[in-house]
């Protein structure tokens, strides 16, 4: 239950908790196999994870050799065990769900509050690398923004049930304010699309649309008045200022060229690219394609991309099958939609702090769906 807090505050603590937790889970599951029998409802997810592990290992073995493939095997198995560990820890145990729900609230609150401190230049822990972009307890804004997607939609749902109108607006509004001031354009676009999906699927559409308009417009106007760096970055994208527009297209061009050399298995690694903006500006050292789909095509080929999408859609499928219940399913679908859009412009799956939180939170939501579809934190 400390894991969500560790994820937003310390990657070192996260690593310690992860390895201790996974080792304990592996030992317990071996000793008591009956207790950890896979429920029918999550078997498609389990199979998708196994395909994901096998596909990423084989493609990496073909294009990069045993040393690199063994690292990928270790990482993908960790992803799988993290999901199983989370799911079985919560499965048929409402009390633990309450504790984890509260720990997620604590983690989200800590990361949003510290982001607000940074906005007012009160970075006590000296975590910001760029004073124009808040980053929470992380050094970079994109890890922070990626995690905020999860917390934004979680806060959106749990405040839906409260009768306190002030909290219904304040909590998701502060989360959205922090997202805006990371100036992560891809994340903002993803959240907007995810929010539209949420409004389409949720009950009480009129009330939720009204609430959403308020808690998004106030942070937007406030950010525009006090700190318009996000709008400057959007303008740079549209106008191509600083050459960033051309840089991203260039990365995609490189990625497609590399993928065509080995369509099925990929070439193994995206080469470092040094971008010198036209007309001067900060030189950028770019190490990935800024597109999760193209990045996986390069590193793991078409086989890897199909395996990855199959894994994501296995979660989407269980949410759709439970959509009639209108609770955790709506959150899960909205989050998936957000990351599918963000992935067009970013390689969020390569960020362990974001990936671990996604898998942990998905494990939490799936346990809720399989049990009773009750997502209530008292």
Total domains, how many?
A: 1
Question: In total, how many beta strands?
Answer: 2
Percent in helix: over 70%
The neighbouring-strand order within the major sheet is 1-2
Q: Please write the string of helix (H) and strand (E) elements.
A: HHHHHHHHHHHEEHHH
Counting H and I runs of at least 4 residues, what is the number of helices?
A: 14
Form type = globular
> What structural class do the secondary elements suggest?
mainly alpha
Which strand-content bin applies to the residues?
under 5%
Which blocks of ≥5 consecutive residues have pLDDT under 50?
none
CA(first)-CA(last) distance: 16 Å
Structure characterization notes:
A hairpin with an 8-residue loop joins strand 1 and strand 2. Strands 1-2 form a two-stranded antiparallel ribbon. The chain contains 14 helices and two strands; from the N terminus they run H-H-H-H-H-H-H-H-H-H-H-E-E-H-H-H. By secondary structure, it is an all-alpha fold. The mean pLDDT is 88. The longest helix is centred in the last third of the chain and has 30 residues. It has one domain. Helix 5 crosses helix 6 and helix 6 packs antiparallel against helix 13.
């Amino acid at each position: 239950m400390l894991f969500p807090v560790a994820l937003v505050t310390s990657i070192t603590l996260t690593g310690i908790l992860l390895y201790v937790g996974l080792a304990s889970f592996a030992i317990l599951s071996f000793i008591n196999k009956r207790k950890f029998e896979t429920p029918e409802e999550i078997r498609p997810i389990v199979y998708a994870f196994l395909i994901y592990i096998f596909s990423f290992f084989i493609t990496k073995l073909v294009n990069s050799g045993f040393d690199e493939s063994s690292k990928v095997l270790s990482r993908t198995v960790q992803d799988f065990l993290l999901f199983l560990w989370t799911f079985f820890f919560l499965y048929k145990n409402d009390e633990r769900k309450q504790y984890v729900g509260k720990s997620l609230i604590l983690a989200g609150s800590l990361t949003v509050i510290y982001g607000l401190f940074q906005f007012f230049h009160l970075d006590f822990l000296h975590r910001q690398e760029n004073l124009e972009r808040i980053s929470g307890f992380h050094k970079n804004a994109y890890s922070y923004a990626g995690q905020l997607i999860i917390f934004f939609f979680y806060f959106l749902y749990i405040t839906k049930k409260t009768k306190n109108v002030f909290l219904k607006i304040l909590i998701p509004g502060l989360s959205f304010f922090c997202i805006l001031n990371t100036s992560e354009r891809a994340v903002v676009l993803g959240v907007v699309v995810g929010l539209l999906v949420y409004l389409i699927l949720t009950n009480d559409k009129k009330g939720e649309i009204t609430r959403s308009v308020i808690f998004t417009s106030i942070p937007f106007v406030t950010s525009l008045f006090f700190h318009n760096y996000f709008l400057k970055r959007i303008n740079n994208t549209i106008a191509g200022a600083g050459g960033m527009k051309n840089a991203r297209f260039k990365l995609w061009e490189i990625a497609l060229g590399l993928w065509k050399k080995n369509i099925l298995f990929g070439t193994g690694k995206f080469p470092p690219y040094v971008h010198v903006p036209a007309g001067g500006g900060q030189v950028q050292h770019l190490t990935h394609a800024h597109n999760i789909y193209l990045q996986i095509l390069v590193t793991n080929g078409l086989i890897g991309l199909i395996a990855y999408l199959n894994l994501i859609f296995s979660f989407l499928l269980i949410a759709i099958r439970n959509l009639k219940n209108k609770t955790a399913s709506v959150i899960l679908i909205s989050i998936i939609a957000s990351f599918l859009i963000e992935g067009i412009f970013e390689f969020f799956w390569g960020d362990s702090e974001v990936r671990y939180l996604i898998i942990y939170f998905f494990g939490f939501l799936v346990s809720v769906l399989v049990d009773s579809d009750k997502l209530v934190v008292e």
